[in-house]
Fold this protein.
Amino acid sequence: MIATVFMASLRSASRSLKKLPTSSGARPPGRRAAHTVPSARWRRRQVQGWLYAAPTAVIVGVLFLAPLVLVVWMSLNRWPLLGQAVFNAPDNYAKIPKNPLFFDAVLFTLKYTAITTVLLSAVALGLALLVQERRPGVAFFRTAFFLPGAVGFAAAALLFYGMLNNDFGPIDPLLQTLGITHEPVKWIGTPNMALFSTIALVLWRFAGFNMLILLTGLQSIPVEVYEAARSDGANRWQIFTKITMPLLRPTLALMLILSITGSLLAFDQFFIFTNGGPDNSTVSMVMVVYRDAFFRFDLGGAAALSVVLLVALVGFNTLLMRRLK
Amino acid sequence: MRYYPTVTALAILFLFPLLWSGWASLEEPSNYLKMAQFGEGVDTYATNSVLVSSMTVAGTLIVSALGGYAFARFDFPGKNLLFLATLAILMVPYATILIPLYVLLGYLGLQNSLLGLSLVFVMFQLPFALFMMRNAFEAIPRELEEAALVDGCGTFRAFSRILLHAVRPALVTVGLFAFLASWNDFFAPLILLNDGASFTLPVAVVSMTQGTFGAIDYGMLQAGVMVMALPCLILFVILQRHYVRGFMSGALRG
């Protein structure tokens, strides 16, 4: 969720990097340079700044940077859940290709990511276009579309788990009453249906969230642009393809990055909703990492897998951001 | 135009699962009684969840308010490096960082601890929270702070008496995001907590699907879903404006 700020903040950070030389000697030019401040006071403000930033530094250092180093170190060791670690590089990496689950999981996760991203962007864009204009009741509809996003993903998965159950859920009786189906549907009983049902769950839970992202983009398009196009005689389709879509591109890019990253790291939906089944057909990459660590007690192997995942994802995001800039 | 029939049908589609779950959980009131006695008792899990969420919200607010002030108003060596390191948290997959955290929290004596879990949540919230708070402090006119300093306040008194008041809306947004994330998260507690008595609600309710003797009590399960979802739904409807503002300030700044 927090990743909304991701691209924006990285960009603004790199902007401020350019503005402020990090060399500690020279005083940064700017606002305070106008009136002269005694250097003792300036140094005191430096210390104060450090003190205010200290909690952030401790949290980031201990709970983010240290584990990042540790995961690399773990990946170079035979590291059982209990017991002594033994250096064994590069065994953990060498055995990745031999992990039969992992290859299937990579393929499955890529397939899931492709389908989900296409459908999610289409649905989110449709919803955003429907509720972008102010009219009576539109606030209610926005809230209705977003509301599933306020529910936790685990709760949403359990909700669908009950709703799609053949004996307990309302969907099968409903479809049969309407004459659409004539017998209970195996919602998570076959590989394809399990994927289909999971995507339905993800669409329900995340469409409103992505709609909100796109709405911020749609609302930043100046009304004058639309008015000018209309007075030039452009029809609705032309306005959509020639104005809305091009101007929405940066927001769409952000949405795509979030959706792709989220799907590549999918865990909750498959762990809770399909439990990887049937026949391991819905095992995602992160699930393999989890299984290696906590079912096979092989933390070193899991660490190697997650290092690979990290490198792939950072590389992929860098590539995508450069292309979409 | 067929606008209203279309959006109404869609709204029904989106609201139906929530309404069904509420109805299914209430169909037999005994669902809630059974859930109350599930495992260690739902009160234990709810208490754990409330504790973790409160510590996460408090921790995120304190760290990001202090940090946001530092990044908005002070220059110090390593400032940009620390900011970039914080934002880099967003780049790293959840699983990549949770497995070493499991080991690291063990070294720190915080394995299977609600405090340890909360600290991990604070870390995950920090990129968004710090970004929000820095922007909020930057938006305050400098004169406000300088007037307080001239009046003989130290920077900390100026911060706690005056500036913190001015960034209250941002604090609400940051707190809301921190609550929703920590209350709902499943993966981190699944990995970091290993004793039933310290489970949070999501882990406990998911364990209901393992069933007793193979039979899953679906009514009880939906009661569990409601206990998890209702606080979020209520909070979201009340604080919707703050939530959307968090979005806008994040997404629009591109």
